[in-house]
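Subject: Interface between my chains keeps coming out wrong

I've been trying for a while to get a sensible model of this assembly. When I model each chain on its own everything looks fine, but I need the whole thing in one frame so I can look at the contacts. Pasting all components below, labels as-is. Any help appreciated, I'm running out of ideas.
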Amino acid sequence: MNFKIAVLSGDGIGPEVIQESVKVLKAIAESYKHEFQFNYASVGAIAIDETGNPLPDATLDVCKDATAVLFGAIGDPKYDNDPSAKVRPEQGLLKLRKELGLFANIRPVTAYNSLLDKSPLKKEIIQGTDMVIYRELTGGIYFGEKKLSEDGKTASDLCEYSQFEIERIAHLAFKAAQTRKNKVTLVDKANVLESSRLWRKVVSEVAKSYPKVTLDFLFVDNAAMQMILNPSQFDVILTENMFGDIISDEGSVIGGSIGLLASASVGDGVALFEPIHGSYPQAKGKNIANPIASILSAAMMLDHFGLSDEAEAVRQAVNKTIDKGIVTKDLNGEAFVTTTNIGDIIAGTI
Amino acid sequence: MNFKIAVLSGDGIGPEVIQESVKVLKAIAESYKHEFQFNYASVGAIAIDETGNPLPDATLDVCKDATAVLFGAIGDPKYDNDPSAKVRPEQGLLKLRKELGLFANIRPVTAYNSLLDKSPLKKEIIQGTDMVIYRELTGGIYFGEKKLSEDGKTASDLCEYSQFEIERIAHLAFKAAQTRKNKVTLVDKANVLESSRLWRKVVSEVAKSYPKVTLDFLFVDNAAMQMILNPSQFDVILTENMFGDIISDEGSVIGGSIGLLASASVGDGVALFEPIHGSYPQAKGKNIANPIASILSAAMMLDHFGLSDEAEAVRQAVNKTIDKGIVTKDLNGEAFVTTTNIGDIIAGTI
Ligand SMILES: CC(C)[C@H](C(=O)O)[C@@H](O)C(=O)O
Ligand SMILES: CC(C)[C@H](C(=O)O)[C@@H](O)C(=O)O
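Reply #2:
Try treating it as a single job with all components included. I did that and got this:
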């Protein structure tokens, strides 16, 4: 089959990890006789440097024209500590999510058996963890009105949600639960926030269409504890944008390395696949970044294409490699292989 | 010396843990020849049941008339899953914070050596952890305008901050850092939120008055990871209300039990002392709750009164008791003492 893939490498280690997932996709194309067309375009700090715009129109066109977007990472420290910067790399990603209608970010969190001892959490705590987080991605405080008073002394952000925005992602979460352990946990702060109370109301309504799935509720502060105390209690976690950002990054340490975690962002049309980790500028150019999160994101993309055998082949190649103890520096500071090495090995296994 | 203490036991296990900290305070009063006058008043769900108001005027008067407030916990499940409830226990606490001008919530997080193995985190990760979280408590999304559209289909909450609100807590955090490890970490989401950018700007300004203290910044999603990956890197964490709620509850698992963690809320006048844990209704009336968080909150209150020897005596009595392995059920499911037992033992040690 024939697929057009928009490749947005971005900043920091983005290009390095993307190079390896493209390598793996090429190996899949060859073995399974598919044709993947890779269309590269720039985003983030590098796009600002080139064009002044973190999401140039040309890039957006490449994405809209594609079957899916393979995304690296964005962000550069030179913007982070400059509160007055008008243009920021992150705006590129946020705009892309909005423009492509990517309203659901899906992040699986699983404990790899061979890596159980890499986690800061005890083995007996993380064993058996197998959850997936559904984070709303195009609403809430990320996209609500932002204000800075004329005198610069007051600033505000509006967190707003509509029934429609909540319903559509809730349906995805319940459908996912049906193929898993039949449990959805809504994370909110309904004891304080009006928007959270709307979430609770709407999600409770949606739940009625999925009688086999149990729905429970957790305040976000309690959820932040439960993720560490007992992560294996969760099946599908459903939550709004900001809480999802925090909880899913927290969850990312369960598996022992954020360098292993993939995500899919889906919505109205074109979907986007990206590793959880950011641009990690300190590691840039050192050939030490872990490309597995990006490779597993590519596997999620294959699933999305309906190529589940191919996706499984990628996952198995990754598992085999990890099981042999072949890992990057983040997972073993003493005996490690480089970013390009591990990409070669995984591609070779396919 | 003579002190008036408002005692607001609240809901769930609140009254049980408060009974023990009052016991301990009475032991202190006797040993050190102080006079503590305890004025009880109701708050939370129980106050709603009694008066329809989670913070009756009479309770507020008792608090305003006191030197400090000793607070239990509030919250009752019957309100949590009812999005349409107009009156909620939490409103009592939020209003109290606002009325008393308690703009800073201070939560120390330390790893007890004798309890290192109780934490879900590995010993080597938590060893040496000694941080204190300064959470802004009377601003942000908790208190910004809340709206529900007429048709009930859209809801919003406004997160708003002013320079003044940020400055006053920033000064407290920097002053604390000067007596500790000279480091302040501001947790925000400045790559997305306008209000976070104001925090970054104002806190950077305040930092100039404390040249010995280093200031660094962490996005809240990254902070949620770093709290688990490497908690001993932190000294003073400074953050806004909602992020502080999440991060400090997450931090509470480091010590092995939320049942050990005290907090102080300070501001313009009267201060308030409360355990981190909530009302934990499942444990109510079973005499199994851990009163140590409340007892250590009472110790923070003694410090606040300027009675540091007395505060130290309470802490030592707690440490001795824990070191002997005398703990409640949350810390040892097999060999445990009751809530009232451990209160007696700690009071007896003084
Ligand atoms: C880069 C940033 C804007 C982004 C977010 O907060 O959504 C990132 O943290 C993520 O989770 O994808
Ligand atoms: C009960 C609730 C409103 C409160 C809060 O969110 O502030 C609690 O979680 C806390 O942290 O003291």
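Reply #3:
Confirming on my end. Residues 1-102+267-350 of chain B form a domain with the Isopropylmalate Dehydrogenase fold (CATH 3.40.718.10).
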